[in-house]
């Protein structure tokens, strides 16, 4: 064992036929990995050189007790601990370690199944089943307890004889994982999560110190940040601020961890020992000693089973930093990132802005209420420009949409671009705040919350504007009358659907902003009840509108008589109907619920105009003249203009009045055009007048009685009117 083997072929596996071969292969492979890790240069084929050694190391370990996805990373880490232990103990000579001959001799009597390194708990066993059946490997329990064995033995000095020693192999491997983070990039245990977090934050800090700025567009920056975020449980953070708050929490946690004494890595639970025995409970949470920082196992969701910094730790990160920031940085142990938080708050992210800030006087970098003066000035300018652009866009868009709605449907749709542009302004504001001003902390939270709220309202405005345009597009179809009730029903339905969509967007947006859905629904329910109680008349009018639209007693443009008002319907709204008075031209608004409960006389839907009038002829007119009068009127109405064959005119000598003969005339005029009807009525009246003059027939004048008082006595004249029936009775008695 004292001599090193010649280099092996990259694809050659470790020899595990005997305990001696397994131990030799393991030590040689670890020394090979150690030499690679100590190399200062990192060539492009580093991974390909690293892989054969690590695979041969894993060949010597029974990893069947570990999850398959963790065997590579945890296996190599356990191997490093085992190599550190083996380098500190005295190993037996080769002839005292079982070889093939000894195993064959022992097999004749009984099967040789395990060999334990003298004076240690390190055991090599013969695998009884599985793909490695018959191979001699370090037992699963030895792999699981490797970190504990290292903790117990690390105070011992390295041996000076025997196989080659890999001094500080563990520290070298940790340095290797910093340079190649993917070698230990897992969250399968508290040890892995903490190591990944510290290494990734240190790597990011070194990177940005060299760049002197935080360029988020740099492709080398994104993977580092994603590895840091992968260590945090962000499930309880609102989505709109998740990235921003996660960044601040990570920086604050790193600042706290750089000020406390961290336990050695081997004392932190790893994936190989989070389950101590079959049937025992799995480690659920681990708290860093003397801190409130906790790493716990996620119990549900897409990251179930991973060990992450708990949501409570993430939320309290800023508070923990405020308590610990006056403490000095530690001087021993893992690498610290001095001034990480201050740099994160004030350093520009954009190279152009960074250049401008360098040109500014030093007092522009003075921090006031958490932000530098140049950041406050930039934020104020961004707010003014943002609101100015939104006001101009919505103002111009409203004016243009009102004009284009009348002239062109296509141009009306094009005006929807204005609210869409207004919707993009808050997003541009967020980009400027985050990318150029590099605002952090509470100011960033408030700025982004406000911008997202404005964006949510802008989206609702776009939805409502789109629903209005959809309604106009449907109404513009040839089969739909623009002024009909169907058109109004379509507009109302589209408006209601737009409001429903806006409510859904509002609820989803509220959840995105961090408001629980139950709270939003409860608030909406309470608010809806309050609105319903205070707007009962409006709701009643809305139901009246629905009744009118479904029953369709009239349409826009028709002449109706409602509640004594005679006029033409101009508009059917959500709350009331507007009628233009026929005679006075006044505009009358009648609530729809009143119309729904009233009798509606729709003059505009009559099939014809009906006229009935009486002509009075004096009582002294001869019979022949009366007959001529009736014949003349019938002749005038014979097949008259606007006559409906189903409704012929009717002229009859129908009654003897007290002072005249009565001729009743009835006719119908169609179509029911009032102007044409009046013109025909005038023509008919003049024709009757002319016929009566030709035949010498007079129209009876109203009977007027004059009573004279012959005495000189003043006072009222006593006149008593007696009915015709009373007069007849009096005459009969006489």
Q: What's the layout of helices and strands?
A:
Elements: H1 19-38, H2 46-59, H3 71-86, H4 100-109, E1 114-116, E2 123-126, E3 136-138, H5 140-144, H6 146-153, H7 169-179, H8 190-211, H9 221-229, H10 242-257, E4 285-287, E5 294-297, E6 307-309, H11 311-315, H12 317-324, H13 340-346, H14 351-359, E7 367-368, E8 371-372, H15 373-407, H16 409-414, H17 417-436, H18 441-475, H19 485-512, H20 517-534, H21 536-551, E9 559-562, E10 565-572, E11 576-581, E12 587-591, H22 592-596, E13 600-602, E14 609-618, H23 623-637, E15 650-656, E16 660-669, H24 674-695, H25 724-733
Antiparallel strand pairs: 1-2, 2-3, 4-5, 5-6, 7-8, 9-10, 9-13, 10-11, 11-12, 14-16, 15-16
